[in-house]
Amino acid sequence: MTHETLLRISSIILLLPLAGFTGIIFFQKKLGRAAGYIGSSILGINLFLSLLVAYQKLAFFSDAGMLQWKFDWLNLGSHSITIGIGLDNLAAIMLIVVNLISFLVHVFSLEYMREDIRFPRFYAYLGLFTFSMLGIVIANNFLNMYIFWELVGISSYLLIGFWYEKDSAANASKKAFITNRVGDFGFFAGIMILFFTYGSFMFDDIFSHIGEGHIPFDSGTMLTLAGILLFMGAIGKSAQFPLHVWLPDAMEGPTPVSALIHAATMVAAGVYLTARIFPMLTADALLFVAYIGAITAFIAATIAITQTDFKRILAYSTVSQLGYMIMAIGVGAYSYGFFHLVTHAWFKACLFLASGSVIHAMHHSMHHAGEHHMDPQDIRNMGGLRKTMPVTYFTFLFSTIAIAGVPFTSGFLSKDGILAGTMAFGQLSGHWFIAFSGFASAAMTAFYMFRLLISAFHGQPKTHIAAHTHENNKLITVPLIVLSILTFWFFYSFNPFDGGSGWFYQKIKTPATVVQAEHQWGFFVPYESVRSHSAACCGEPTANSATEPSHNHHKEAHHALNKYEEALHHAHLPAMIISLIIAGLGIFLSFSFYQFKIFNPDGVAELIRPFYLLSYNKWYFDEIYDASVIWGTTTFAKILALFDLYIIDGIVNLVGWFTKLVGHFIGWFDLYVIDGLVNLTANVTAFFGLVFRKFQTGRIQAYIVMTIIFAMVLLYYVL
Amino acid sequence: MEIGLTHYLVVSALLFSLGVFGIVTRKNSILVLMGLELILNSANLNFIAFSKFKGLNIEGHIATLFVIVLAAAEVAVALAIILNIYQNYHHIDVDEINKLKE
């Protein structure tokens, strides 16, 4: 297969879901349930094609970089704007992730959404979302990416608000959309800085310009700013602090949507974007990214501990794990960050679909019992589901183990790599907070995930509803099984303790930074470039060249690209040991709290009440935003409304009043002067008429007399 | 005293004035018509006088003959009109006939 064939198939993969969307959206009534089968089969074909493409790309064109197809989109005089699609290893793997999860969600929804009145529309929206997400994946320029970025935003909006009869769903969709707009604003500004500087949207153009030392406004600060602004798009889309507030609310959407969009794919788009722009991020921008990720991972993990809504716990877990990935990319553990994106996509999609399975079963049970006031998503109403829903339980268990970072799972491989990355970064740069946050979040993740597992599935049923649940049919269980199988380690690396030795790590190489050495961490700069750089600037002693002499030795030892890779390699073992200990600790605590009840969770919560309340109320983010941004905006709007009412309306009324006055004057003038003149003419005419009508007697003799008189007068004058 | 042009003209002017007076003052249409005849005849008298004294010669006579013929035709038409008026109004009083006013 040639490059062209691969790209052609990629574009087919992109366009098929769009065809499905347009096909379904216009024939909703006619299609009915068939819409689900159409959507699912389209995704089935898509999955097959993407497996084919990814296999071809990874097996035969692995070192070819990005296969690109470019064409001129817009000609502006001498300048033309190029767009196109591109396929590199990153995109190839993402194609599989998106299509597989989308396919499984399509199948899952056949059962889950069976009784929904807008069933066809759901499939149309899923198609639209898949199309947009694939568009982001195979974009090779910022313009395409931004367009599809907005399209996933709108599909997310439509799907969160799918049950728009519920106020909470309608509000959540609005919140998600508006919060995303804040991030997208930054993203757009970042794109504009780059476009203004380089006149191109293409990744490769921009990166090669930066590599040549041509940076926006000739200022490293501007390059940092551009990077941070682009990253703002990721903050919004990947629900990073401080814009993470929309994601938990987005759980108002149907659960398959939560699995597809708000766990596995769309929220990972932010991570994908950060990975894409990784080469152009400067030291400061990377530090910013890393801190945002670390803060997000930590805050979200603390919140997840105390939540009681099944899906909300998973939502905060997602936020925390996304923070992990962002943090990984920020500290330069690029491959592991993307690795975690993929492994997380499988197990989090599995967790969400399992939660959907539980909620579906709870709904049915409630329906049978005639109970309508219970919250089917509250884990306090569950318990003991292990016996009634064994398949869901085991798949959930596998995914929980994976997310907790237990060895022999995919999650262990990727999380371990990230923690090693943060340790290496801490060691080289001194920013240890990131590593601390990584480990703390890992412990908390293990704790809250097992808390969720134990509360929902273990023990005795807490309500009769939970006791009378039943396992769902195959349309729901098969996707769960497929996803839980993917949590095993051997899909990624045969050595269950070293992700770095697997094919995945080999195929997803950390791209070399293109930022000039003076704006980049010394340890990210490739050795070759350090040497040439220090040679070029006449041996001037810089921070990078000072560390140079020891490089050659290490380079031969590990074939490492730069100093960071070496440190990462060395940090691997300690990171693994610490992460094993703390994950074990988290799991142990969780069991002792909730399974064996050695400690009383309520008592502990009482003991550390302020922290408990902080976590339970989600760090008061919503309240803070309500009091600051939202209150500020509405107050500002009110002030503007008052301004409008009194000042603008006042001016308008004044103008109106003045105009009225002038109008009155003109009216008066018209009435008396103009009409007066007209009437005067008429009156004079009438007066003469009155006078002359006297002569008009109708008597011939009178006429004759007058004729004679005037004839005589005439004669008198003429003669 | 020799009778000259002036005498003729004076007679003619008197005749004209009498005609006009008749037209203006009489109520009876017939009398008005008769006043008209007087005016025509005063004009005829002028023609003849000028033909004799001022060398208008034969043209004056011819014009007079024309006027006489015209007067006859006019009387025929006018009498027909008066008959019609009489049929409509049952009188021929010019003072009462003021339909022209409307």
What does this entry look like structurally?
Chain A has helices at 3-26, 28-31, 34-60, 89-112, 119-137, 142-160, 167-198, 203-211, 220-237, 246-249, 255-264, 266-277, 283-306, 310-330, 334-369, 385-388, 390-404, 410-429, 432-457, 464-467, 474-485, 503-507, 527-536, 543-546, 551-558, 563-595, 601-607, 609-616, 621-693, 700-718; strands at residues 67-76, 79-87. Chain A has 719 residues and is mainly α. A two-stranded antiparallel ribbon of chain A has the order 1-2. In chain A, a hairpin with a 2-residue loop joins β1 and β2. The longest helix of chain A has 73 residues, at 621-693. Chain A is elongated. The termini of chain A are far apart. With 102 residues, chain B is mainly alpha-helical. Chain B has one domain (5-101): Helix Hairpins (Orthogonal Bundle), CATH 1.10.287.3510. Chain B has helices at residues 5-25, 29-53, 57-89. The longest helix of chain B is centred in the last third of the chain and has 33 residues, at 57-89. The model of chain B has no long low-confidence stretch (mean pLDDT 88). At the A-B interface, α30 of A face α1 of B.
Keywords:
A: 719 residues, mainly alpha, B: 102 residues, Helix Hairpins, 0% strand
